[in-house]
Design goal:
Helices cover about 45% and strands about 15% of the residues. By secondary structure, it is of the alpha/beta class. The protein is globular.
């Protein structure tokens, strides 16, 4: 049997891959054989990540991209296609969170979260769609969250929850539209993952961390690699019959 997880010869475009979960996804897909395009708002972290991928023996290209803006996403995709020739895999990873009470949430905070998490995901999917659909092949993996299926506590984050619920439904909608044309669309929904952002929250809100751990059956946070491995599966031929799947990776949090 051939190795269904082998990504040799494929090119993956990952947004927000300069650090955190996105960077671990880049490492994981590169280790599986893929060449990597990094679309990142911060050009310094993007170039650093690209250099790391080249050090792994893979081709890498970095491009500045602000997923809030459809034009920026379109330009990034066009640049990747020009430099790397194709996009076989798209991972919409860029995202932010705002912990504000609903009644105190400003217009700008709400729009920032929706623009980056939900609109940015759609801009990415729409930008690569003509290329993938014309070729009759492609795999898109959107990073959603368990917060798209449940309401976390104790932190107030209505904008984040809504944005990630939207990502899950967007994933299902696009899968239904494009599956018959050779393009698979799926999502990964992480639970609490030990990223720089989450560690900062744990330090700032120690009472929150205790509740997070207590409500997670495994008793601790996951690692970025746990999310990256789920993305690898959905991006690979091992998941060729997965269409509109939301793969929850949360240490059991949503099981209770």
């Amino acid at each position: 049997m051939s190795n269904l997880f082998d990504l040799t010869g494929r090119t993956a475009l990952i947004t927000g891959a300069g650090r955190g979960i996105g960077r671990e996804i880049a490492r994981t897909l590169a280790a599986a054989g893929a060449d990597i395009a990094i679309a990142e708002l911060d050009p310094s972290t993007a170039s650093d990540a690209a250099e790391e991928i080249r050090g792994m023996g893979r081709q890498a290209f970095s491009v500045e991209c602000n997923v809030r803006e459809a034009g920026s996403v379109n330009n990034a995709v066009a640049s990747v296609l020009e430099h790397m020739g194709k996009i076989d895999i798209l991972v919409n990873n860029a995202g932010i969170a705002r912990w504000t009470k609903a009644e105190e949430t400003s217009d700008s905070d709400w729009l920032d979260v929706i623009d980056i998490n939900l609109n940015g995901t759609f801009w990415g999917c729409r930008a690569v769609a003509p290329h993938m659909l014309a070729r009759g092949s492609g795999s898109i993996v959107n990073i959603a969250s368990m917060s798209g299926s449940i309401v976390n506590k104790p932190q107030p984050q209505s904008a984040y929850n809504v944005s990630k619920a939207g990502v899950i439904m967007l994933t299902k909608s696009l899968a239904a539209e494009w599956a018959g044309r050779g393009v698979r669309v799926n999502s990964v929904s992480p639970g609490y993952i030990a990223t720089e952002m989450t560690r900062k929250a744990v330090t700032t809100y120690t009472d929150w961390a205790a509740i997070w751990h207590d409500m997670t059956p495994v008793g601790h946070m996951g690692e970025p690699a746990d999310v990256a491995h789920a993305v690898w599966y959905l991006a690979s031929d091992a998941a060729k019959f997965a269409m509109g799947t939301d793969l929850i990776v949360d240490g059991g949090y949503t099981a209770w």
